Amino acid sequence: MFMKKKNKTRIYALGQHISMSAHKARRVIDQIRGRSYEETLMILELMPYRASYSIFKLVYSAAANASDNMGSDEKDLIICKAEVNEGTTVKKLKPRARGRSYPIKRPTCHITIGVKDISLYEGEYYVDPYINNINKDYLTPLKNLRWKNAYTGMIDENVYSSGGVWDKK
Question: Which domains does the chain have, with CATH numbers?
Answer without folding.
Answer: 10-121 (3.90.470.10)
